Amino acid sequence: MQGDYPHFKTTYVQEELVEHFLLNPTERALVDTCYGDGPRHGVAMLLKAVQYLGYFPYDLQQVPEVVRTFIAHQLQLLWDHTPDYPWQSRTHDRHLALIRQHTGFRFPTGQDKQELERWLRTYGALDAPTEEDLRECAYARLRSLGIELPARHELHRIVQAAL
After folding, report:
1. CA distance linking residue 29 with residue 14, whole number of Å
2. Contact 30, 102 (CB under 8 A)
3. How far is it between the farthest Cα atoms of the chain?
4. Which of 21, 55, 86, 118 supports an S-S bond with 149, CB 3.0-4.6 Å?
């Protein structure tokens, strides 16, 4: 995945599932504040996705089936409840806010993007001789600040401007 905009792999081995998608007790308690199998499963997937990718997926179907099943089994669910998640709703908005509060991630502002470009020019370029390396610096910088990644095209523009 290096250099590419972060995305899910098509397949994962058990060790990777445990490393990236295992809910710890605090995360499990957060998920258990939600009512219903669909919302609990959706919140768990959104939580692990933002931690793994650095942004929320646009659709839970983007999450590979093996990951959805791994998370479902942690919640003692017998099957994937992705279709039951209320995606276009206030509930979804509340879930995103809940996850942001829990993780400390926040949506990037215009000022964040300007500061990232400035930081990449000043510091990132010293250690990143290629565009791919500079993108990796941008990902690491945003994660360290707890800022969700901007859209792919926006991040590409910021890296290009910094170059």
Report:
1. 23
2. yes
3. 51
4. 55
Instruction: Check if the beta carbon of residue 137 is closer than 8 Å to that of residue 144.
Output: no
- One-letter amino acid at 20 equals H
The contacts of residue 85 (CB under 8 Å, 6+ apart) are 38, 39, 41, 42, 60, 92
Structure tokens at 153: 């095209």
- DSSP secondary-structure letter at 161? H
The one-letter code for the residue type at 68 is: R
Q: Return per-residue pLDDT of the chain as tens, 163 residues.
A: 455 789 999 999 999 999 999 999 999 999 999 989 999 999 999 999 999 999 999 889 899 999 999 999 999 998 888 888 888 889 999 999 999 999 999 999 999 999 999 999 888 777 777 888 889 999 999 999 999 999 999 999 999 998 8
Q: Which residue has the tokens 């215009």?
A: 110
Between CA 42 and CA 60 the distance in angstroms is 8
Q: How distant, in Å, are the alpha carbons of 1, 11, 139 from that of 15?
A: 17, 12, 23
